[in-house]
Structures are given as structure tokens and as C-alpha cells.
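Follow-up to my post from last week.
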Amino acid sequence: MSTPWKTGTDDDFVVRTTAWSAPGCHPVGCGVKLHIKDGKLVGVEGDEESPITHGRLCVRCLALDEYLYHPDRILYPMKRAKEDRGKDKFERITWDEAFDTIVDWVTKTREKYGYQGVAVMGGTGREATLFYPVLSYAVLQTPNCGTPLSGASCYGPRCTVTNYLMGAGYPEIDHAAYFPDRYDNPEFEVPEYIIIWGKTPLESNADGFFGHAITDMMKRGTKIITVDPRVTWLGSRAEYNLQVRPGTDAALGLAMINLIIEEDLYDHEFVENWTYGFDELKERVKEYTVERAADITWIPKEKIIAATRAFAKAKNASIQWGVAVDQMSNGLQMGQTILDLAALTGNIDNPGGITLAPKASLTGKWRYETIRWVNPELVQNRIGNDVYPANRSALTNLLADPYLEALETDQPYAVRLMWINSCNPYACPGAVPERWHDAFLRMDYVIVQEAFMTPAAMGLADLLLPVSTYPERDGIVLPHFGRNSPMVGAMNKVIAIGEAKSDFEICLTLGRRLNPEAWPWETVQEFLDFQLVPNAGFTFEELREKVYHQPHYEYYKYKKGLCRADREPGFETVTGLFELRSLQFEAWGDDPLPYFMEPQYSPNSTPELYEEFPLVLTTGGRKITSFHSEHRQIPSLREIDPWPIVQINPVDAEKYGIVDGGWVGIENQFGKCRQKAEVTPTIMPGVIHACHAWWYPEQDQTEPNQGGYKKSNINMLMPHFHVGPLYVGAPYKCLLCKVYPVQGLEE
Amino acid sequence: MSKQGLLIDYEYCSGCHSCEVACRKELGLSVGEWGIKIATIGPWQHDDESWEWNHIPIPTKLCDLCADRVAQGKKPACVHHCLAFCMEYGTVEELSKKMEEKGTKVFMVLP
Ligand code: SF4
Ligand code: SF4
Ligand code: SF4
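User reply:
Got it. Predicted complex:
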């Protein structure tokens, strides 16, 4: 018998719930018990009955009280005159006035510029990830919905590869998360090896995966191979660390495939019955000998051979890929090689391999279906679609780079109302931060929907809408945004702080005014029931009672006719097979087979530039104390990681006069910033790693400082529009730079 | 009654800091005060290329082994929330036995 979801009295009670940012992270499904006394949060404890976490919590949820009651939170709707942008001159208003204002601005903008004169800019990971597309499509009926991330460099590329190679949702490590008895389930077998490729799962809990499931499985015998320019703590416990030169991963993948085929280590049954294009792939990879890969990637040849053999000979093995796949212009091909490695070794949909799931489900599916509320002609002619036709079918968002140019030039059409939803565009994801800042200032109206005062909120908002945190809202948590969800969790509203509303509540109220046909529900619960009852078979109230629901998982679905809509065996692809040779990539004008391409700026592609900028720059490895730019103002978390850190090998530190703990100037042909040095042998020589999304909430938030968003922002060094052949993938993880000692943070 | 302590399996302590923050909240401490804190050895590489990199959580004198929680039949806050599940609470006898079973990279601490 599980504990009731709510225990105690009316003014002193404990509620079991599921967490999802704000604050926190992606939808991981962590279970939390919140102790509320007299309307205030007085205790947070991990829920030991959570099938995902069994009571564990990371520091971000443990410091929940510091977030909820922080003075920088936005708790009421506020407005500010356009001429006061950047100044601390907000004035509290009512929600009624806020909604009236929005309707007025939207109407005026539409009259002058059409529906496409309105745009939405969304952030990652928070519940807003599900609702900003809905806000755009079903409420505002504009196709202009996107993020400021150049090259759609997060998650989308990985989903695109998976979609077209194997017709499935996100390929996650099988960590028995679908089973109530988890690792003890008789059908499950722990992976003998896991390759962690371009990811730090323990620190990031990214995408919908509880990172320490890795240590759980290591205790049960799993061995680790990492592919990363850094030896992470996990790497210190790994059997092999392949320290790869950033941006060259596809060359490694191709050589591993070659070796597996040459040494006949592949799974003949899987390859013969379930794949398409093996012979062509076999021909292609012949170019990529281990020697050549060692040369390109800077990984010793022996290590590549040993790790590849260990992986391929394992009874079962899994691979987890990270955002590194998305953050280089050769990323689609890198992703292709990784999935191919899993397919060639038969590690798909097997116990302890990679789990197969539908492409989308529940709210994760519905959000994209709401595109039907936008005029189809506007959708077809979305900014950037002419240059990148793949976007018409593959990506559902606007392309950030042409989006920025459109905001700057009013071409192909003018956008005049910008709605920034849980996004910190120029302090966090945006390459060329200053250009984004200036482009937003051109808008007639800027609405910012946020939980905290951020540089964008202070710098731009004419109207500021407060977003609730998870204890303040009802909802559901879907790990992997419904693309491979081993559970559905109830998010239970337990307190009200100020007048913050959830993203969905804002959509619902405004949707019923602007586009009532799309919004037949009167309450949040009615909507949740509309999602849950037909798809999962229970109501939200029923889910609330159980808190968590785990759907059944069936292995080897592709053999049983459970993957395709027509119920035939095979995969939901054009050929019905796992496509080692991608017909879709070919149709879009790219190579159907994986290939290697040097980063735009690298020791090999730009040797003269490399003389001036002699270090490879990689960025964005996560710390457990923050979710991108979130949490910088939370005392217990900032105390642990007070400064942005650039990691540099002792050999390079000595060469460039950098000392451990000293301030470092990082600079390249695009810009510069400052971070603090961590001199460490864990980063490979010749490469530095810099943290992302740093700003200083303790500094002056108003113009021109705006929380010092330029000072340590590594994206000051990122270029605009350096993307892959099918648009996706910008070089956030592979540029060149130089470093030099500086006196401190301030110039 | 025999003495109680904490067992730390530092083979798996990932340095996630959950013990530190969970403890701070349990004891009602302010920023700057710690009931337990991680010390880190390494990272450095041995001649055989293996890595020495260990996080070692050490309770401070503020640690009361979560007397209140234990009285309610709960585990100490650090043990409960440890992301790597690498801490255990128990009597010296129980923990000694577990240490012997684990064999390596483990210690017991009596705050
Ligand atoms: S990973 Fe951390 S922040 Fe995210 S839900 Fe779990 S405990 Fe909260
Ligand atoms: S046992 Fe309790 S008081 Fe002691 S370190 Fe752990 S959490 Fe803190
Ligand atoms: S909570 Fe556990 S894994 Fe995390 S630092 Fe403390 S002892 Fe280590």
C-alpha cells in the first residue's frame, strides 16, 4: 500500500508530488514530499516511493525554499512604459489588466502586421517547453515560435536522427525505469557496458533521465566507457575514457563501425533482418581506419580499438548521447554513427540496451498538433523554410539564426510583438547575445513570462507575467516530454505565493479570449483529463491519488509488430527497417550515409587562425547547482559554485601563465569574456572547457549592466549562423580561442 | 545501546552535495554553516593511468546523526537524499560488517 498523496491536517500537511521546473530541470520525474504549514513550505524530502528516485533529491530541489521565497521572484503581473525598458520602474497591475493589455497589443499588431507580426521565444526544459508552442499556435495563432539557440542545437537534432533512422522517440538507456521493481525485474538485465557520449548525466539529469541511475547500475556490474574531452568523475570510474577533440566525434563513430564490421563483431541477425543499407555503410566506413580516426580525434589508436571491442563483444550494452551531438555542424552524422553502433550490435529494444518508444505522447504530442490553429500558408512560409526545406517536416520550431535576422531587418516580414516565455535569451542560449538584445529592443511590445527577475525581464519587459513554481500548480510530469516516458507523475498544487500562474493557466485564460474554439476547457483539471483519459485511461484525480503511473514496457517491439502504425513487424520508417542509409536525409539533399566534416574553425580546417587562437574551446558542461541560467541567486547553490569555471590542462596553464583560481580572459575572433581557472589534468591538453549561462543577479540589473550578462557569458565568443547542412547543429562545443590572465571579473 | 555512525562507500560518492544541503535544511543551518562537508582527494593520475579522485563527506561537530529523524523511524537526511545511495546509518557493529562485505573504498565515521 502506498502512502496517501496527502497526509496531515488542513493547515499542517505533507503532499507527495512530482517536480518539474520552475525550479529544477527537465522533466525527470523526481518524487518530492512537501511539508506545508500555515500556507508556507517548511520542509522538502525526497519521496522514497518514487519509482524513479526512491527518495533521492539533488541540491536544486533540496534548496527549494530558497527559490520559492527569494526576493527576486516575480510574484505579480507588472507593467512598465516602453521608454523605461532597462530601468527598475515596474508597476504592479492586476491579471485582468494584464490580459486586457495583451489582447489590445495582439489586436493592434495583427491589424498592422498580420498574425505573423507576433512571435514567441521559449526557453528549455521548464514546463514552458510544452506550453510555449501552444501559446504560439493555439493562442496567438502565429507560426513564429522558436528559441534563440543557433542551429536548434539542443535535443531537436537528436530527435530528428532518431525519428528518421528508427522511427522512434528519444533513445534512452534501459535503466528499468518502466518497471515498478526496477533493476530486480526478471525481464531486465543490467547493461554490461554503457557508453556515455558527450554528456554528464550525474550533474545534468538531462532530457528526462535521472543521472544516478548510472551509479545504481555500476553497483550491479555495469562498466563505463566515456567519450568526452574531459575525464569526468564518472570517467574516473570508467574502464575507458576516449578523450575526443571537440567536434570530431563522427570520425570516431565511423572508425568504430568500421572496426566492428571488419572484425565481424556485429549482430548478424539484427543486421540481416532489421536494417537497410548495410553494404553501403560498410563501403563508406572503409575510409575511416582507426589510424585515421586517431589522427583526427587525438584519441590514441589502442584506446579506440580496446573500447570498441569491449562494447561490441558485450552481451548487452547501451549508449547515452548528450547535447554534444547537437552542438556541432557535423552533429547529425555523429548522431547517425551512434545509433548505427547500437543497431549493429543489436542493442535496441533489448533488455539493458536502448529503449524504443513512440515519437510523441500525451501533452508532448498535442503541443505540436496545435499547429493546426495557424494559417497553413504562414506555416509553410515560416522564416527560414525557403533555405532549409527539411524544417518543414523535421523541426517544428522557427530557426533561430534567420529568426534573428528577421527581427533585425523586418525581412521577410516585420515582427513587432515579442513574447519571451521562460527564456533568458541573451544571458543563456543565444549566440551573439548583444545582437539578440538589440533586436528585441526594436519590438513595439515585449511580454516576458518568468519566475525570476532576469536580464531579459529587466532589460525588455513592457509587461511581466509571473510564472508559478511546481508547488504552486497542478499538472503532469512526462519524462522526455512524452518521447520515451517511463512514468507519468502528478504535480500537485499545494501553495500560492503571490499571484503566479502556470504556463498552462495563462494559455487557457488568454486562449479562451483570443481563440476560443481551441480552448473548450474551463479548468486545468478538465484539460488534464482530456489528455489522460483517452491516452492513459485515468483521470488527473486518479493520478493524483497514485502520484505516479508507470506504463507497461515490452521488449523487442519491432519483432512483434508493435512499432508501426500498420502493425507489421519492423520500424516506423520508410523502409520499415532501421535505416543505416537514410532515405530521408537523401531526400533533403544531404548524404544518406554518415560522414565526417571538420568543425568550421579547428586546428585542421583553419591552421592560420589556429596560430592566433591555439586552443580548442568547448563549452556548456553542467554543474549540479544550476539549471542553465536558473539558480544563480540561490544562496546554498551559489555557495557551492560561486563562479564560472574554465578548465585548462596544467600543460596549457603553464604555457599561457594561468594559475588555478585566477581570472582568465577567453577570446577569439568573435568576442571575449572572463571566467575563473580550474587547472586540472582531467581536461585534455590543447582544449579548454568553459561554463555557460553565467550572469550575476547580485549586480546591478538595470541597463547598461543588466546583471553583467556579457562579462562571463561564453556565448560572446559564439558566431552567428554557422550551422550544419540541414540547418541543425551550431559549434557551441567546438571553436578556437586563446586565454590570458586578467586581474578580475571587471575590465 | 551501542554507538551509531555513518558508513560512506566513497567508491560511489559522486560529490553531488546533496548530503550537505539536506543536512543544512534538516538542522536549520544558515549559508556558511555545514553539518557535513565534502573533502576531495585528486583528481590525479597514477602511473598506470588510473585516476585517484575521491569525494569524502565528513560530518562536522554540528552533526547529531539526525536524532529527530531517527526517533521518527526515518533515515538521516543525508543518507535519505544521497544521490549515489552511498551512505548508510547504523550501529558500529552493523556498519563494520557491511564495511567488510564491501571490502574496499569504504569508511565509517562517528561524528
Ligand atoms: S533532478 Fe534535481 S532539480 Fe530536477 S526534479 Fe530531480 S531533484 Fe529536482
Ligand atoms: S546525520 Fe543528519 S546531522 Fe549528521 S550529517 Fe547527516 S544529515 Fe547532517
Ligand atoms: S550525497 Fe552522497 S554522493 Fe552526494 S556528495 Fe554526499 S555522500 Fe557523496
